[in-house]
Amino acid sequence: MVLTSSSASGNQWYVNNGAIAGATGNTYTATTAGNYTVKVTDGNGCASATSQAVSVTVNPLPATPSISAGTSTTFCAGGSVTLTSSSASGNQWFLNGTAIGGATGNTYTATAGGDYTVRVTNTCTSDPSQAVTVTVNTPPSTPSITAGGATTFCAGGSVTLTSSSTTGNQWYLNGTAISGATASTYSATVTGTYTVRVTDANGCSATSAATGVTVNAIPATPAITAGGATTFCNGGSVTLTSSSSTGNQWYLDGAAISGATSNTYTAAASGSYTVKVTTNGCTSAASAAIVVTENPTITAFGPLTQSVLKGAAAQPLVVTATGPTLKYQWYKGTSGNTSQKASSTSSTFNPPTGTRGTFNYWVRVTSGTCTADSPTATVTVN
Question: Domain 67-137 is of which CATH architecture?
């Protein structure tokens, strides 16, 4: 406290009636408690009366507070640490020596990096506490996911997901960490929402936006039911029905039948019939086969036309057919005209060439009560 005498010169200051050595100025800064007075001596050596006393009271400074941290003072951006003053009241918190507005509680939640101190004020203000340094680490860049193919596929398929970060990855499915999935790529095989979290050397992390993967189920293997006998005469048929009402594709001997996509198919040709079902782009396994037999079936015949010189040997006409217990009867004329039998009852017929002209031949193949007629073969004898 600065005390000032009304006299500009000749002063001598006293505390508790004891002269203060060297205290002869117009002012005196009092730092200790007591009753302060001053006397003035003029140029003739005459001293004035003593001034009225001024009582000075020196209050003690509050104890210097200390700070305790509730958790680690090093953390990632977005985190915090609670700092607690050793004084229950009178606190003022500081960051890097600057008072923090409104921070007067017993605790302070620090979210920014820097040096934190606290002072305590009762009547007087304490010295600042020892600083607590808070370090806030910057998180890594937010990663992104790139899909190496379609993210919708059939069961048994997969898509490779790639993180934009080469290190520090952890993959998640529907928010749950996938055990061992820490590479920069992950092969996704199940439906769900995939994210990747990247963690740096400071333990700070960032999570990508989600990538959705949809795995469609393979349809159940269909079954075929036959609406009648699967063995019939040439010209007959049987209706085959798939157990699936939609998505069908019919096959004959393993080859897709063009346009045969309904729930049923009328089979008129010999062979092994199967059906597959496709739903959401996924195709089932082939059904068990239904074997259809058409008796008899002519698979080859010919040649259909030829020219030969009179008396020369013509190329034999040959029929190839399938079916049990096959019998053959050749006829002259166009196919279906049975008015003139030819001599052959085998699968081969040698056309005669003794007469010039154009002649037609065909063969009827019999298997039990079923027959099949060949096309007409034309032989020109020149």
Answer: Sandwich (2.60)
